[in-house]
């Protein structure tokens, strides 16, 4: 579906592909129609609705091949992750000199961590006006991304506890239950209690550091906050950002008594520290190694169980339509 530009900016008609996940938590037909009407009044607009997992990847790859100027994603963090991987070549073959469409996000999911971290308004209609203003003024910025050998991530990945929670939440969504903050909190608490008796551990390797043995869960962040509990920011690595390396947050215990003080510090935005915690807010490479496969999530999507997975960082990997970074 296409719309005609009636108010092109001075540099010429801007070609925009709008990718909509119609199944995302905060999207609706009426809201989608309003976004299409607003965007098509400004840009040469191609509207695409996703129909299956991986479809946002396919559509964004086509946008890159057909030289679109910008890809706007209206959906949750999973859809944005797919589109980013479609815009860019796999990390091992990526050519930074090749022109790519910029990426813009109109929140449409339950968490919208990436959009909120970029400073995009949580209201879809206000976010649309914000994106239009930024495009009209030519305002964008380059951000760094994390990646495995074959996949990019925007804000966070992890092995162990958080992946178990994400996996459980996906099962609940497939069963027709809404992904509310209260359900996330209860799923986190119940999963934590269940995992407290688990013997599954992994080791962590960081170049130039001693090996961390017996990790129970670990987060790798590309920015901060890592996630939100409703309006509350959760900052596991407070000084990690899109212009730094990766943040590492690894705990060697899932004991409730040992983690309650740490959870309190996270909820009150105090500096995260504990005797069983390793944290570094700026590293270039991390490797998780387990004897048996352990669950891994990436940008809030469960991606499977792994025994050996390596994470690296690429600076200035992606152009995003977003306000200038603030301190």
UniProtKB/TrEMBL annotation:
SUPFAM superfamilies to which the protein is assigned, alphabetical: NAD kinase/diacylglycerol kinase-like (SSF111331)
Listed InterPro entries: ATP-NAD_kinase_N (IPR017438), Diacylglycerol_kinase_cat_dom (IPR001206), Lipid_Phosphate_FormReg (IPR050187), NAD/diacylglycerol_kinase_sf (IPR016064)
SMART domains to which the protein is assigned, alphabetical: DAGKc (SM00046)
Cofactor dependence: Mg(2+)
Pfam families according to UniProt: DAGK_cat
Organism domain of life: Bacteria
Domain (DAGKc): residue spans on this chain: 11-132
Start and end residues of each stretch annotated as Disordered: 81-100
Similarity remark: Belongs to the diacylglycerol/lipid kinase family.
Protein's recorded name: DAGKc domain-containing protein
